[in-house]
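Inverse folding, one chain.
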């Protein structure tokens, strides 16, 4: 009688960790929220800094333009 081949063994499922070993899902969510809040705070700080720099550049540009126009008008009326 021919010998029957054994079917391959099924891999046993890994046992899930015990509850004491599991991480607290609320802590995970709190960590994620904290990281997201930090990222938002940093992005807002960068955006505010860029805005301040742009406002200063525009102020300087407008001041120079105003001074140039004032000098031009003064020269025109001094003739």
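Residues assigned per position:
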């Amino acid at each position: 009688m021919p010998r029957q081949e054994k079917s391959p063994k099924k891999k046993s499922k890994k046992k899930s960790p015990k509850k004491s070993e599991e991480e607290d899902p609320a802590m995970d969510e709190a960590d994620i929220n904290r990281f997201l809040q930090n990222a938002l705070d940093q992005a807002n700080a960068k955006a505010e800094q860029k805005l301040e720099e742009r406002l200063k550049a525009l102020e300087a540009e407008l001041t120079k333009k105003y001074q140039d126009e004032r000098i031009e008008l003064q020269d025109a009326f001094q003739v």
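The chain is about 65% helix and 0% strand. The radius of gyration is 36 Å.
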